[in-house]
Amino acid sequence: EYPHMAAIGWTVGEKVQFMCGGTLIHPKYVLTAAHCAVSVGGSLPSTVRLGDTDLNSAHDDHFAQQINIRKINRHPLHRFARSYHDIALIELGTEATLSTAVFPACLWRDEIVPNEPLRITGFGELEEAGGHSPTLQQGQVQLMDKEMCRNKIRVNRKIPDGLLDSQFCASHETMDTCQGDSGGPIELRRVDLYDQEHPVVVGVTSFGTPCTNGSTGVYTKISSYIDWIEEETKENFSYQNCVKKSGHRNVANNLLDPFNIPAYGHLLQNSSLDSEFNCAGTLIDDRYVLTSAFCVTQPNETPKFVYFNANNEAVQVDEVIVHPRYEPGNPTNDIALLKLSMYLKPNSTLRPICFEDTDTSQYPIYSFVFRSKLQSDLGNLRYSYHTKGVRRSFESCDDNVEESQICANNSLPILPGI
């Protein structure tokens, strides 16, 4: 469940003591807290352990990898006397071997941390001065309002300027990070267009109030340091790249035959496929395509052609007909028709779709999502498609949804930009 979780150890005598956590973000890099790059017994952190949920047991060691640390790079503004810019990158001596038990997490890039339950993990103390836990612990905390956090975390010599915008707080009545959890992840979960769930790390465990019921944790906000992380690693940590590199997705269950989407068309600005913009339409009879009014009313983006993957043909648009009551910026009546320049002859690969004419609210609904272009055996450019299951949900709709609209949602939000 947490293949990105790392335990950071110090070699003291003949033993390795694991006293901080971290997050695998790349086969070669682990993200942690800068204050973890401290000397213990005259030694800096020397090793990272991955894929292990019980540090004192060998029963799961066939998943584990213990890799020497090549270098620890603290953020240049971090000072040990302060708790600001508490973030560091560990460069591993050798790249981790990726598997279902060892795999990088995505990084949250948006400035705002979502106000939703956040997961915390670590091998830290289960109670104040109680000794580190050998087994990986998990918990759930809630983002705390900044003003409330300032009342909990008073200005002191470690944070003389109070909390910065690059820090945030989270808490729970009975759960919190504790001594030994430093450097570990605080995260949320998101899905991609394949319905595969991804851990997305929003922060690095930094410090907090003493570990008791209702204690407060302070975390370094990762989005404030994305530029530094990418500069130091020379890697691109975009959401798209993160999903693309996830080699353990199972997409077969929702991959559709590109020749078997008979009513689906891509809107083009000219007959070249390179002119496509992010809109599509549905063939509803032999001359009309149904689409969104939003898609046909954008400045300088009026569709001139519709490309049908089913027969590899771009058909010119004769007329754009927008619903008379549509107003830009208002989702009501967001519907339009495209009249094609020619009648299409239905066949086994190209045929109009049927309309729903009965109450089918008890059935699941699906949206088609265009994912990528691919080359067919005949050398023609084709597309791959996937289905995205959504649930009809009336409870989660606000009062602005009208009877002419369907409300649906996903079990988890989709990764931004995916």
Strand and helix map with partners:
Blueprint: E1 5-12, E2 15-26, E3 29-32, E4 47-50, E5 65-74, E6 88-92, E7 106-107, E8 117-122, E9 137-144, H1 146-152, E10 167-171, E11 185-191, E12 197-208, E13 216-221, H2 226-233, H3 239-244, E14 255-256, E15 264-268, E16 276-283, E17 288-291, H4 293-296, E18 305-308, E19 313-322, E20 336-340, E21 365-375, E22 381-392, E23 408-409
Parallel strand pairs: 7-12
Antiparallel strand pairs: 1-2, 1-4, 2-3, 3-6, 4-5, 5-6, 8-9, 8-11, 9-10, 10-13, 11-12, 12-13, 14-22, 15-16, 15-18, 16-17, 17-20, 18-19, 19-20, 21-22, 22-23
Describe this protein's structure.
By secondary structure, this protein is mostly beta strands. It folds into two domains: 5-244, Thrombin, subunit H, CATH 2.40.10; 255-409, Beta Barrel (Thrombin, subunit H). A hairpin with a 7-residue loop joins strand 15 (264-268) and strand 16 (276-283). The longest helix has 8 residues, at 226-233. Strands 1-2-3-6-5-4 form a six-stranded antiparallel beta barrel. The two termini are 22 Å apart. Mean pLDDT is 83; it is low at 248-255 and 371-382. It contains four helices and 23 strands. Belongs to the peptidase S1 family. CLIP subfamily. One of its GO terms (biological process) is proteolysis. GO terms for molecular function: serine-type endopeptidase activity.
